[in-house]
Amino acid sequence: MYDWIGGEATVRRLVDRFYELLDTDPDVATIRKMHKDDLGPVRQSLFEYLSGWLGGPPLFIQKRGSPCITKAHKPFHIDEAAAEQWMKCMRQAMIDVGIDEKYRQMLEPAFGRVAQALRND
Q1: Torsion angle, CA of 97/32/81/47, rounded to 10 degrees?
Q2: Predicted pLDDT of residue 73
Q3: Is 68 helix (H, G, I), strand (E, B) or coil?
Q4: Calpha distance 86→3 (Å, rounded)
Q5: What is the pLDDT of residues 84-107, one digit of tens each?
Q6: Could you tell me if 105 and 41 are in contact, meaning their C-beta atoms sit under 8 angstroms apart?
Q7: Which pLDDT score is estimated for 92?
Q8: If we measure between CA atoms, which residue out of 55, 66, 111 comes closest to residue 88?
Q9: Residue 52 near residue 60 (C-beta atoms within 8 A)
Q10: Is residue 68 predicted with pLDDT exceeding 80?
Q11: Cβ(51)–Cβ(57) below 8 Å
Q12: Which of 92, 96, 91 is nearest to 108 (CA)?
């Protein structure tokens, strides 16, 4: 999938657009409040995670070891509404960066499973 959607450049743009939306869309204020003011570190972390998750270089694992995303998100109250806010940003980011619809249709359920796995309500 990494190569199909455009590799490193597209993954970087996807993550950048995701966090732009997170930072500007008032409808996702709940999940924005879960983040620090400076989104730079989490932006880099998501880029590294998605790189490997999508089949590209395992940057996150090379830097930090095996990811345990449920543990990293445990301090936050993540319910259905928060999961859907995350998905809203990711769906729009995929559209905005020009990921082909056939790949968005494959990615959306996978991203949805990740969002649901983080729920702790």
Answers
A1: 40
A2: 86
A3: coil
A4: 24
A5: 999 999 999 999 999 999 999 999
A6: no
A7: 98
A8: 111
A9: yes
A10: no
A11: yes
A12: 91
Tell me the three state secondary structure of residue 104. helix
CA–CA distance from 63 to each of 15, 17, 29, 45 (Å)? 18, 23, 30, 10
The identity of residue 67, as a single letter, is P
pLDDT at 72: 81
What SS3 state is found at 77? coil
Query: How confident is residue 64, by pLDDT bands cut at 50, 70 and 90?
Result: confident
Q: How far apart are CA 69 and CA 102, in angstroms?
A: 27
We find that the CATH architecture of domain 2-117 is Orthogonal Bundle (1.10)
Regarding pTM above 0.85, the answer is: yes
CB-count burial class (<10 Å; 0-12, 13-18, 19+) for 49:
buried
Within 8 A by CB and 6+ apart from 81, the residues are: 30
Question: Is residue 86 packed enough to be buried (19+ CB in 10 Å), middle (13-18) or exposed (0-12)?
Answer: buried
The DSSP secondary-structure symbol of 118 reads: T
